[in-house]
Amino acid sequence: MSTGAIIAIVIGAILLVAIIALVARAAGRRRLEGRREAAGEQRNQAQTRAIQAESARAASDERAARAQRAEAEAEEKAAHARKEGAMAQQSSAEAERQSEAARVHHDRARRLDPDVSDSGEEEARELDDSARGDQTRAARSERDADSQPVQSGH
Length: 154
Fold this sequence. Notes:
By secondary structure, the chain is an all-alpha fold. It has one domain (3-147). The protein is built from 2 helices and no strands. The radius of gyration is 49 Å and the shape is rod-shaped.
């Protein structure tokens, strides 16, 4: 082989190595660029998920706040109902005391009045009838008070 041929083979080999190096470098850059794009997509997905999580957290907090308000309103209504029940019992007890006082006065009047019989059956029926009427009126007014909506100071 001649020197010219050896030089041509060496130059060809150098060029081949240079081309392979350039191709390998370009492939490495493409690989890096692909990894950068994949990382960018992952970041975008992470940001989207973070926004969704924050939105879900806010919705959850809002639901919890609504539940707390509902519980507070329910407690307020229960307290109002207990108060109304206590007032109704108090009114009933007072009505019973008044009825008893009226019976005592009727008994005294019957003992003092010479024109009225001592049996008092008719007066007892009248008192019982009026007491039932008072109880019916009290129950009706309590029912009317319960059916009115409770206004809260929000």
